[in-house]
Every structure is written in C-alpha cells, then in structure tokens.
Amino acid sequence: MKKAAYIVSACLCIFSVYGCAANSIQFTKNSKPYIPQQAQFKQKKLALVLGGGGAKGFAHVGVLEELDKAGIKPDVIIGCSAGSIIGALYAANPDITALKNIVLNGKQSDVIAQTIAEWPYGIYSQEKMRQYLQANLKAHDFANTKIPFIATATNLQFGNLTTFSKGNLVQAVLASAAYPGAFQPIQIADQYFVDCGVADPVPTRVAKQLGFETVVAVNIAEQLPESSPNHFLGVSARSLEIAYISLSKYALEQADVVIDFEFTNIGTFNDKHNKYLYEEGKRVALQKIPSIKQALNQKNSDN
C-alpha cells in the first residue's frame, strides 16, 4: 500500500480529533452552491480532458507532445488536479518545449513543502504551489490563455463538481489540486473547494454538457496494488482507491477516445519516475493518434 495513502488516512483520523481549530472551516448556512461565470467557446469540435493522479501527471506532458506533433489542437482543455496544473501551463503557453523545461526539470520540493501553518486541514504548504503557478503560468486570468481552459474542483459543502473558466486562474488551479488531507481547502466566494477527483477524476461530462463534439480523455489513475492491507489504515486507503478507480471508469464512458495507462506503485507525490511517466505518455498517446483522427473525421463527415 502506498505511503502517501497511509499518511493521508492517518491525517484524516487525527484531523477528526482536532476539529476546533482557530482557522476552522465554517459553511454558510442557507446558501446555494457557488456557480462561477462560464466562458463562451468559439468552436466546440475537440475537448481534451486531463485527469487527476498526482505525480502521474508527468504523463500528460508526453500526451500533449504527441498531440502537438500530430497537429491535433484542442478547442478546450479541461483539467482535474494534476491535469489542471499541466493543462493550465500548456493552455497559457502552448509551447511543448517550454512545458517540458518547466515540468520535467522540476522537483517535488518546487511545489510542496511540509508545514504546520495549514494545520489541521493540510500538511503541505499551499503557498509553495501558489508561488510555483504564479512564476510559471504565462497567464494569471482565464481570459488570457492561448487555448480555452476549464479547471474543475469539488465543492466541499455541497459535494458538486464546479467548473471555473473565468477570473483568477491560479486560485482555480489551486482549488482543483487541493488534495484532501495534504492541502487545505481553497476558499472562493465564501465556499470551500477541494480536489476535483473527489467528485469526478476525469471530468468528461463537463465537455459533453458544453456540447463538444469529440472528447478525448487522458486517464492517469493508478491501478490497485497487488499487496494486501494488514491494518485498518490500509483497508481505508484501499477502499478510497477502489472508489476513485470506479469513478474514473464511469467518467470514461463519456469519452470518444480514452488514453489510458496501467500505472502501479507510483505514489501521489513520488517524483522518482518523472522520465518514465513522460515517456509512457508519449508511447500510449502515439498509439491513440489514429483513433483520435478517425473520431474527428467521423464527426466532420456527420456534419
């Protein structure tokens, strides 16, 4: 069982004891789910959905590179968690060389650092991630991205998936990647948001609801480990993993083409496999290029 899953499970148990913190989350009573303003899209032919999966997001870089080589240009990129981080970086500056320089040469310590400042809701500093995004994003507002972009997050009070496509890009990406137990929830408009993977790890339904003709989904969810749990934290962690994989499979039913992987034992915050993940992204995406072109041509002929 993965170390990160143990840590998160343990922290959740501890957090439940310390519920009366000075900076405690307070839900607004008698309120309704926050609905952000939504952007309008000039064209709705191809939506690229980048799923969540922590460090496995390095595979997204390889996928984007092969799509770029094949001349496949998405009309929107929809990101979840790691997919939001990589998707936002690329949407703001669709230069694959620049993206590789930023992401592949980075280290875990560039984006996360342990802290007590966000206790009891997180063990890693949100400020570290904020500084990383502010330094590397070529656009800090959705309106200024070169490719239309949507970040997704889970509303902690109401449980619904929320889509952000206007306003503060950095804040929306932070919300999308606020992994429960690791990072504290992000407050936007008096409501709190956590990682989109809680509600939908691969938000293909967002693309369908917006009317995009072809949806290509990149699923980087990890397979269940072969090892069996030997205590209650292991059982809890594996149960969460099963739920996450089941949600991912359900979401992928909405996609026209799925770029899928069989990652195991990578870990949410493990930065030891960056090159392997990137190369796997390239390898699997290259295999799927013909299917993507066929789906696009089919839609064009139908129209």
Number of strands: 8
Mean pLDDT: 89
Strand content: 5-15%
- Total number of helical segments? 9
Largest sheet: number of strands, sense, barrel closure: 8 strands, mixed
Helix content: 25-40%
- Give the N-terminus to C-terminus distance in angstroms: 49 Å
Whole-number radius of gyration?
Answer: 18 Å
Q: What is the H/E order?
A: HEHEHHHEEHEEHEHEH
Mass-distribution shape: globular
List low-confidence stretches: 1-22
Q: Which class do the helix and strand fractions yield?
A: alpha/beta
Quick description:
Helix content is 40%, strand content 13%.
List the helices and strands and how they pair.
Layout: H1 3-17, E1 46-50, H2 58-69, E2 76-80, H3 82-92, H4 96-103, H5 126-136, E3 149-155, E4 161-164, H6 169-176, E5 186-188, E6 191-195, H7 204-209, E7 214-219, H8 232-252, E8 257-260, H9 274-302
Parallel strand pairs: 1-2, 1-7, 2-3, 7-8
Antiparallel strand pairs: 3-4, 3-6, 5-6
